[in-house]
Amino acid sequence: MVRYILGRIGGLLFAFLVVSIITFSLMHAVPGGPFDEFKQPLPPAAKANILRKYGLDKPVWQQYLLYMWHAAHFDFGIPFSSPTETVISLIARVWQPTLQLAAVVILLSYSMGFLLGTVAAIKHNTWIDQVVTAFATLGFAVPNFVVAVWLILIFSVTLHWLPTGGWGTPRQFILPTIVYALPPMALVARYTRVNMLESLRADYIRTARAKGLTEPVIIGRHVLKNALIPLITVLGPQIPNIATGSIFIEAAFRIPGLGRYYVTATFTRDYPMIMATILLAAFLWGFTFLITDLLYTVIDPRVRLTGGRN
Amino acid sequence: MAATEAALNQVPQLKQRTLMRDAMRSFFKNRLATAGLVVILIFIFMAIFADLIAPTPYYKSVLSESLQFPSWRHLLGTDAVGRDFLSRLIYGARTSLTVGFSVEAIAFAIGLPLGALAGLRGGWVDFIVVRFLEVFTAFPSFLFPIFIMSILGNGLSNVILAIGITSWIDVCRLTRGQLIALREREFVVAARSYGSDDWRVIVRHLLPHALPPLIIMLALGIPTAIFAEAGLSFLGVGINDPIPSWGKMVAESIGYIRVYWYLGIFPTLTIALAMLGFNFVGDGLRDALDPTMYND
């Protein structure tokens, strides 16, 4: 077990390192830089000064090592686009709207998806099941910025109930939350339904029925418990995606969150901001995967962890 | 003797049942899947014959006719610089499908041989491929293509490259897993025991069994790539003007949505239709090709 965890952490660190090297070298591989003359016409001495200040005059490998050394001490540098603060404080600030959105979306989509999937499985092959399945296919297949436009057209442009975008008031919160919650809700509903159906057909359920247990007890104690386990592998990795991936929603509803700042950072070649965001997403992803796998062994004692990973 | 032979010939020949033939039948019995296939075929037709079907070239802009409501002259209206919306949607199919098919071509060209090599050879080859998989999965799914696009610059081939870079991971992992599961099975061991060489084992025994899940992955990978292209173009880091892209048309429509609301309807419906078409076909194939899953 310890050997397995150490091996996994080692693998994650290696992947993390490669991601950082590739991102860093790609950033510097293109000619030009964030302080090019056409953006900021500066006298050569002043430009050299700025480059020296940010360490951009050194060879790339030295810059990388320096960056990683500082990063290991939780110093991710100063964003070029907002030099009065650090990258950490900038990310903390712009991640807030994204995280607020993500928290509500995770709660809403998981609970609703789970409920819909369960109801669909219990009412298998009825119209309820068909409606849920159709809804799940739609929510899963149609891109969220497409749904965003539809909901804006209905609720903002036609009915004038809600604003078309912006951030800050509760009314501006509603549409982005619904749009962002739909795909994970559809995914959870889909998987819950399939797992429940499989679990309902299992032999131990037939045994439970034969024993004369009531339907609520069968569903609650036997079906749900076994249907939940496979869900963890699907749901766990969704969390970091939701927490860092609301780029389209933020663009469609003009929300000043992490995704929008990231897209701007790639345009302006804000190296420290790009690096920090990609490393943050990669770290969250790896961490969640590890936790998911460990959680799996706690809940399902049949799963034994070994050194290798398939 | 002659009489019995003649009688035998009278008996209608039973068609041989194969997995593929069974799958075909069950696929076409599925109404949603058939409808999806029809939608896809229409889009492919639009993409190939766009020059003949589209009322005007996609770049033809008449500024005096900008932002028009749908009319007989412009069936779906015109955009901000007076280009016929219907024409741009038709040419947009060409962009979307080019990206969808090219990205999957990259995914299978890299993922299939790499996964097969790892699955069959095992040992240190497998170790290296698995490390590769781990590293490439760690790249954040939308953040990284956006970053790549900021380096390469906008354009069709750059979009294909940016999406394609990580597209092969799933194909590689699936191929590897399939072959590892299959290579110890009795029929493979039996084939080896009567002297089949590697090549014959792979082509005759392993590939046919590994194929169905890969076909499903291909069918579901195309809409994923189309989605990614529409997404990048929606953010403004995808296809360059004047080449039309559905995602870019959606982004442009949001700016005018309060007044020229109709601009938002057609590109979003087109994207939704294409995505549903491919997904229905993918789901239909999954139901048809997976003999362990019986539909109730």
Number of helix segments of chain A?
13
- State the helicity of chain A in percent bands: over 70%
Q: How much strand of chain B?
A: under 5%
Average predicted local confidence, pLDDT of chain A: 83
Protein chains sharing the most extensive interface: A-B, 51 and 46 residues
Which term fits the overall shape of chain A?
flat
- Residue-averaged pLDDT of chain B, rounded? 84
Please count the helical segments of chain B: 13
Q: Which percent range fits the helix content of chain B?
A: over 70%
- How many strands of chain B? 0
Structure class of chain A: mainly alpha
Main sheet attributes: strand count, strand direction, barrel closure of chain B: none
Structure description:
The complex is a heterodimer of chains A (310) and B (296). Chain A is built from 13 helices and no strands. Chain A has helices at residues 2-29, 44-53, 60-72, 87-122, 127-141, 144-158, 170-200, 203-210, 215-235, 238-244, 247-253, 258-268, 271-299. The model of chain A has no long low-confidence stretch (mean pLDDT 83). In chain A, helix 5 crosses helix 7 and helix 6 crosses helix 7. With 296 residues, chain B is an all-alpha fold. Helix content of chain B is 72%, strand content 0%. Chain B contains 13 helices and no strands. Chain B has helices at residues 2-10, 19-29, 31-48, 50-53, 85-121, 123-137, 143-152, 156-164, 168-183, 186-193, 198-235, 246-255, 262-289. In chain B, helix 12 runs antiparallel to helix 13 (262-289). The longest helix of chain B is centred in the C-terminal third of the chain and has 38 residues, at 198-235. The radius of gyration of chain B is 24 Å and the shape is flat. The two termini of chain B are 48 Å apart. Chains A and B meet through helix 1, helix 5, helix 6, helix 11 and helix 12 of A and helix 6, helix 7, helix 11, helix 12 and helix 13 of B.
